[in-house]
Amino acid sequence: MGISTFGKRVYQPDWDKLEADVAVIGAPFDAGTQWRSGARFGPRAVREASTLFSFGHAGAYDHEDEATYLPGSVNIVDMGDADIVHTDTMKSHANIETAVRTALRAGALPVVIGGDHSVNIPCINAFDDQGDLHILQIDAHLDFVDERHGVRYGHGNPMRRAAEKSYVTGLTQVGIRNVSSTAKEGYDAAREMGSDILSVRQMRKLGPEATAARIPEGAKVYVTIDIDGFCPSIAAGTGTPSHGGFLYYEVLELLQQVAGRNEIVGIDLVEVAPDYDPSGGTQILAAQVLLNLLGFIFHEKGHR
């Protein structure tokens, strides 16, 4: 069966030789979790699940859209995992940042598979020389904690750290619901710092097209997807599940709308903790979302 790379695409361990349209990076770090760990096993599980959708290089035909997605002209390469140093958040984050910078220097779209949501912090750090960007976050939790118990770089902090960047011009935070990771002062700070916050029910009222239209026209968009943005009825394999989340097509249609309106310059998908879902459905969902999103992005770029 071979190595379980993402979508059974080529593995390139020599990053100096990276040539790709899409560079997949594993970030198996979960020391930023506040409760249930296990997302360190996410990259391996999502890669294995993605082999279910490995249709070779002829692309995959979607009869609903009457389109072929991810044809052979889209060069997807798996860079393997960033080195994680156990108990050392800053060194592990630095290694993830190096991997993302390497992908960007090669002109590739970085796709990072976590790991807990703290891995978004080094991902966004790596964009400091890429111009302005807007962040679309799909998540159950706001993740806008400034500091808690001395921790500033855990999985409750990434959107606060992102909003502090001069090149992050705003955030659209969708799916936020229930008792969250962030106290009221965090919500107040988020709105003051340019966040547009929508719950699942608010987005359902708007619909995916109107929700996507809230992202500024012409903005370059970085997409960060926490798997707990989905309802745990379809994504049980995560450390901090929150009932009432999105179903598959709600997220898919939002991503398709955004890919059609804006340039997507980076992606991460985090918090898949496969041991909490014996069915394997969570990692299959994650792989399917990523592959479809990549299909939408490169279809808009003319890969048909």
From TrEMBL:
<dbReference type="GO" id="GO:0008783">
    <property type="term" value="F:agmatinase activity"/>
</dbReference>
<keyword id="KW-0464">Manganese</keyword>
<dbReference type="GO" id="GO:0033972">
    <property type="term" value="F:proclavaminate amidinohydrolase activity"/>
</dbReference>
<keyword id="KW-0479">Metal-binding</keyword>
<feature type="binding site">
    <location>
        <position position="117"/>
    </location>
    <ligand>
        <name>Mn(2+)</name>
    </ligand>
</feature>
<dbReference type="GO" id="GO:0033389">
    <property type="term" value="P:putrescine biosynthetic process from arginine, via agmatine"/>
</dbReference>
<feature type="binding site">
    <location>
        <position position="226"/>
    </location>
    <ligand>
        <name>Mn(2+)</name>
    </ligand>
</feature>
<feature type="binding site">
    <location>
        <position position="139"/>
    </location>
    <ligand>
        <name>Mn(2+)</name>
    </ligand>
</feature>
<dbReference type="Pfam" id="PF00491">
    <property type="entry name" value="Arginase"/>
</dbReference>
<dbReference type="GO" id="GO:0046872">
    <property type="term" value="F:metal ion binding"/>
</dbReference>
<keyword id="KW-0378">Hydrolase</keyword>
<dbReference type="InterPro" id="IPR005925">
    <property type="entry name" value="Agmatinase-rel"/>
</dbReference>
<feature type="binding site">
    <location>
        <position position="143"/>
    </location>
    <ligand>
        <name>Mn(2+)</name>
    </ligand>
</feature>
<dbReference type="InterPro" id="IPR006035">
    <property type="entry name" value="Ureohydrolase"/>
</dbReference>
<feature type="binding site">
    <location>
        <position position="141"/>
    </location>
    <ligand>
        <name>Mn(2+)</name>
    </ligand>
</feature>
<protein>
    <submittedName>
        <fullName>Proclavaminate amidinohydrolase</fullName>
        <ecNumber>3.5.3.22</ecNumber>
    </submittedName>
</protein>
<comment type="similarity">
    <text>Belongs to the arginase family. Agmatinase subfamily.</text>
</comment>
<feature type="binding site">
    <location>
        <position position="228"/>
    </location>
    <ligand>
        <name>Mn(2+)</name>
    </ligand>
</feature>
<dbReference type="InterPro" id="IPR023696">
    <property type="entry name" value="Ureohydrolase_dom_sf"/>
</dbReference>
